[in-house]
């Protein structure tokens, strides 16, 4: 490390670390972020979140450098200083996944989705962990999970406001997070009301059997309020009706991110898998539904239909 680096402020070192990270010099970036951390810790007026971001940045470098254990340590420190930091959650999840600690990875991916339900990397990670855990523990794998933290709405709003202000490396994980993910701000009351009206218009179109038009209304509603699970399940019903099964599954996953016991999401996801003739996935989804609601007759009939395929 050149001697002149040591005289720089922590903000200058942070920027230097970011630039070094972008060029793929991850070992050097680790060294620079380490200096930045030391400099910031010397400051009398240091903000915990600033320090948390530095640890998260160094964690990204460790992850890229293949040192997953150190990545987890830095993410733990980052999340103590800056609770529910999405980037730290995603980086720790990727590290846990690489270490084959799939339950912990699943928890972090699901927690990140509570903060921003539009993170594709977290959805993909959740799906991978679901598959891995099902293969390892069978259909009862959810019973072995640690509790998933509930992210308060006040925290979601605060993080959404800060999302665009944090200067950090763009790549969160070696394969899953190649693009920069940003959190959308929580919808305001005006948007929520508009979204509700659009959803009701979609519901009216469904009753008329006009599913494609209903999809358009639900999509408009979700642009205004992407935090309403029933809009996703309603649109999923329409996607199943027009045989856009993969779109239906994606909408059900969105709803299940917000409510893992959502009966409609589990049922329509099962319908979509049946439409795709993925019998195993259909059975797994139905069984999840029946664990939530054991006497659901529609689910039982769907399971019988799947067995006939």
UniProtKB/TrEMBL annotation:
<dbReference type="Pfam" id="PF14559">
    <property type="entry name" value="TPR_19"/>
</dbReference>
<feature type="compositionally biased region" description="Low complexity">
    <location>
        <begin position="161"/>
        <end position="177"/>
    </location>
</feature>
<dbReference type="Pfam" id="PF13414">
    <property type="entry name" value="TPR_11"/>
</dbReference>
<feature type="repeat" description="TPR">
    <location>
        <begin position="195"/>
        <end position="228"/>
    </location>
</feature>
<dbReference type="InterPro" id="IPR051982">
    <property type="entry name" value="CiliaryAsmbly_MitoImport"/>
</dbReference>
<keyword id="KW-0802">TPR repeat</keyword>
<protein>
    <recommendedName>
        <fullName>Mitochondrial import receptor subunit TOM34</fullName>
    </recommendedName>
</protein>
<dbReference type="InterPro" id="IPR019734">
    <property type="entry name" value="TPR_rpt"/>
</dbReference>
<keyword id="KW-0677">Repeat</keyword>
<dbReference type="GO" id="GO:0005739">
    <property type="term" value="C:mitochondrion"/>
</dbReference>
<feature type="region of interest" description="Disordered">
    <location>
        <begin position="159"/>
        <end position="191"/>
    </location>
</feature>
<dbReference type="GO" id="GO:0031072">
    <property type="term" value="F:heat shock protein binding"/>
</dbReference>
<feature type="repeat" description="TPR">
    <location>
        <begin position="229"/>
        <end position="262"/>
    </location>
</feature>
<dbReference type="InterPro" id="IPR011990">
    <property type="entry name" value="TPR-like_helical_dom_sf"/>
</dbReference>
<keyword id="KW-0963">Cytoplasm</keyword>
<dbReference type="GO" id="GO:0005829">
    <property type="term" value="C:cytosol"/>
</dbReference>
<dbReference type="GO" id="GO:0006626">
    <property type="term" value="P:protein targeting to mitochondrion"/>
</dbReference>
